[in-house]
Design goal:
single chain, 154 residues, mainly beta, 4-stranded antiparallel β-sheet, 13 strands, 0% helix, 40% strand, disordered N terminus
Length: 154
């Protein structure tokens, strides 16, 4: 099976599960008001966004339960799993902007870097992804077709 989501600005029924063998679609239990689901690379966890309050929710494939992983004072940012499935990289562009790691399942929150050199007005936000060697990569809309590399020192 796989997960589907709809944009948060349109009505939705939550995270939908598609059974590929029967072609039936159902709502994932406990995920009626969640969206933007992403499975961990090892398939043990699923994270999704919840609103009111803004939070990251964690689903355990072993226990088949949901729990709050991290609550935010402002709307969520972008996130991506690390290759080892032990944490997420999260970029926030509002409030305490920066690039963070969030461990799974513990929920330890650590700031890696400020994003002061990245344009916070980008209509695309500050999308975070992973390079082939497992490092975080950020996209910044400079309104021209250019690609920049940003390296974080630890």
């Amino acid at each position: 099976y796989t997960t589907l989501f709809r944009s948060p600005d349109k009505p939705f029924k939550g995270i939908q599960i598609v059974d590929l063998s029967t072609r039936k679609i159902s709502i994932m239990p406990g995920a009626e008001s969640l969206y933007v689901p992403v499975w961990s690379p090892d398939g043990k966890y699923l994270v999704a966004i919840g609103q009111n309050p803004s939070r990251l929710m964690l689903y355990s494939a072993d226990t088949k339960t949901w729990r709050e992983l991290k609550r935010f004072d402002v709307n969520w940012g972008w996130y991506v799993w690390t290759k080892d499935s032990k944490s997420l990289y999260v970029s926030l562009s509002v409030g305490e902007n920066g690039l963070y790691t969030l461990t799974v399942p513990e929920g330890k929150w650590e700031k890696l870097s400020d994003l002061e050199r990245i344009d916070q007005r980008s209509p695309l936000g500050n999308y975070v992804s992973i390079t082939p060697d497992g490092q975080p990569a950020m996209m910044d809309d400079t309104s021209v077709s250019q690609i920049y590399s940003l390296q974080f020192r630890q």
